[in-house]
Prior knowledge:
Blueprint: E1 7-12, E2 17-22, H1 31-37, E3 46-51, H2 57-65, E4 69-75, H3 78-88, H4 94-97, E5 100-104, H5 111-116, E6 124-129, H6 144-150, H7 156-167, E7 168-178, H8 183-190, E8 194-203, E9 212-219, E10 226-227, E11 231-232, H9 243-249
Parallel strand pairs: 3-4, 3-6, 4-5, 6-7, 8-10, 8-11
Antiparallel strand pairs: 1-2, 7-9, 8-9
Amino acid sequence: MTAAVAETIDAFHRGLFYVVQPKGRGHRSGMDAMLLSALVDDDRPIRVADLGAGAGAAGLAVASRLPAAEVVLFERSQEMAGYARRSVLLPENDRMAARVTVVEADVTLKARLRKDAGLVDESFHHVIMNPPFNDAGDRRTPDALKAEAHAMTEGLFESWVRTAGAIMIPGGQLSLIARPESIAEIIDACGRRFGGIEVTAIHPRDGENAVRVLVTAVKGSRARLSLRAPLVMHEEGTHKFSSLVDDLNNGRAAYARR
């Protein structure tokens, strides 16, 4: 008899929506996904693509906060796409289920193969992504599902940003979260596709080094890069989140571009 796969059903935005996730294996979404979703600040009827969506936390967070947003969750892993489909179908997510679609697709595909997989040219206003962030030389986890979600391959940002540029309408916004050491690759990947790059470093506390960067850019823009004020997660001497970070994490606010 096949052993049951351990999983959890986790609340986000203080119980406004829920996500089915594997327990003890694979990638589990949390703060990164919520900060990524907060980068979409747009009350219009929009289409949003979540590339490498995993179980769907970031895309669902966008749909939860923005009632006019239609979201497509693109995920290569059959298993994680299955979790995303189950997340969408949870009764607790009924209010937005009709606006969220899951597509099993490799976001690194090119040209006709990409289109055939559902990644259609110039069809999204926003593209969000939280690409794998571990260097290929880092110690690999024995968990194959987690390794697929976390292990960076050569040219990863180039291929993901290339797809984002292809499927986004002119003037659309790219949003991503990554480790600070990836910033040069991200800027290179944006190249002439995206301009107006805004970078926000996320620091655990004042005086501590950044652990993540938030990046947004606009397709076709020729505006120059800007470094925004850092985002400090915790109040001095405590584990409590700052009021702004707590609002971003719980869907009460968006992190608007300047």
